[in-house]
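wait is this the right file?? whatever heres the structure
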């Protein structure tokens, strides 16, 4: 039963990607080059546990294109936790990231001579 639902979801997603007017496609060769560029690591956290997934920076369900310029390698944890959110929405919900942003804002920049 679960496998059938998963297959239906995959088919629905493929159809969505193929009918998206801005999608230009992403070849497996381009994807391999991109993963190699990131050294088989997640673009967000640098890990690779659970394998490398294709993450759409702007989710396809929100009008993003299925193209090399909108895809990044992501570990399973980052990809699944991001879901259909934009990166800014996803990181805003992360308390650790929010603290880092506050710390950076309070840091004074050195004056140039």
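ok assuming it is, sequence goes like this
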């Amino acid at each position: 039963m679960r496998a059938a639902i998963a297959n239906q979801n995959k088919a629905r997603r493929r159809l969505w990607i193929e009918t998206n007017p801005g999608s230009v496609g992403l070849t497996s060769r381009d994807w391999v080059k991109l993963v190699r560029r990131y050294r088989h690591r997640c673009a967000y956290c640098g890990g690779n546990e659970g394998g490398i997934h294709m993450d759409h920076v702007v989710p396809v369900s929100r009008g993003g294109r299925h193209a090399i310029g909108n895809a990044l390698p992501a570990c399973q944890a980052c990809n699944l936790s991001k879901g259909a959110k934009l990166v800014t929405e996803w990181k805003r919900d992360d308390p650790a990231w929010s603290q880092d942003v506050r710390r950076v804002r309070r840091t004074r920049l050195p004056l140039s001579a």
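Confidence is low (pLDDT under 50) at residues 101-106. so i think its the right one actually
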